[in-house]
Amino acid sequence: MSLQEPSPSATTHPIPQEAFDWYDEYAHGVIDRRTFMARLGTLTTATLTMGMLLPVLMPDYEAAEQVSFNDESIKASYLTFPSPKGHGEGRGYFVTPVPLEGKAPVVLVIHENRGLNPYIKDVARRLAKAGFIAFAPDALHPAGGYPGNDDEGRAMQGKLDRAKIEQDFIAAAEFLKAHELSSGKLGAVGFCFGGYIVNMLAATLPESLNAGVPFYGTPAAKELRKNVKGQLLVQLAELDKRVNGSWPEYEADLKANGANYTMHLYSKANHGFHNDSTGRYDEENAELAWKRTLAFFKSNLS
Q1: Which of 24, 138, 150, 240 is catalytic?
Q2: What is the mean pLDDT of residues 249-258?
Q3: pLDDT tens digits, residue range 270-291?
Q4: Catalytic pick from 168, 192, 253, 282?
Q5: Catalytic residue among 141, 271, 276, 282, which?
Q6: What percent of the chain has pLDDT over 90?
Q7: Contacts of residue 238, Cβ cutoff 8 Å, sequence gap at least 6
Q8: Model pTM?
Q9: Is residue 74's pLDDT more than 80?
Q10: Is there a catalytic annotation at residue 240?
Q11: 192 catalytic, yes or no?
C-alpha cells in the first residue's frame, strides 16, 4: 500500500535545491569533492556565500544529539560478534533500556555509507529510550572503525568488500536476534545505505526479520526480492529522485510476493530528511516518520 503525504508546511531552507541534490551525488560517489565544490561555487552570490552553504550541507553532530549517552534511562556499551562469511568479526554499539526487566525486542540500526557516526548512535539511544534493545554495527570495524568524520568514513567504506559488509550485517542480525536479552523479535531500521541493507535483510532473512524500516533505501538485488514477505515500513522523500526511481519496480515485486508493506512519501523532503545533523533535516516530516517507526516496531515486535 502506498500513501502520499498531505503537504505539511515542511521546514524551508534558504539554500537552492541544487545544492542538496549535488550533496547527495557527492555523498554517494556520483561526483568527487572537487566537482561538488565547483558546482556549489556557481550558486554563490554576495548574499549566499560558500561559508553559508557548507555548514548547512555538512553534519554538525554535537548540535543534533537528542539522547545523551549519560541518560540514566539507557545503558550503552560495545559488543563484538562473529562474522565468518564477512570480515571475520564485527563490532557495534549496544544500547539497552534501564531498568531492563526480563527480555525485550531487539532492533538493528544500520548506518549510511560512512560508518557508525554520532547520528546513528543517537538513533540507537532513542530506540533504547523507547523500550527496545538497539544494536548499531560499524561496517568500518575491519578498517579500524569510524574515523571521526564522514568524508574519511565514506572513503574507507568504499574500499571495503561490499559483499563482505552485507554478510557482516546478516551476521549482526542473527547475533542480535539470538542474544540472551532478546525476546526473539527482530526489527531493523536503516538510512540510505542502511535502508538498502534493511531491504537486503528482508530478502535474505525473511523468516528472521519481523519488521523492517528502510529510510530512503534502494531494494535488494532483483533475484532476491522474490523472498521478501514483510512487514516493511518504507520511508521515502519526495525530492529524492535517485532512490525514488527504484520504487515502482520494487513495489511491483512486493505486490507480486503478496508482501506486507506500507510506503510513506514525505512531501517536500530531501534524501536524508531524518538526519538532524544537516540542513537536509525536515523536523516535521522526521518526527512524523519516527513516530510511525516506533509504532510500527511496537505493533510488530511485541
Answers
A1: 240
A2: 97
A3: 999 999 998 889 999 999 999 9
A4: 192
A5: 271
A6: 76
A7: 5, 244, 265, 266, 267, 268, 269
A8: 0.88
A9: yes
A10: yes
A11: yes
Residues in the chain: 302
**The pLDDT value given to residue 5:** 52
What's the pLDDT tens digit per position in 7-56?
Answer: 343 344 478 888 888 887 887 778 888 898 899 888 888 778 887 787 77
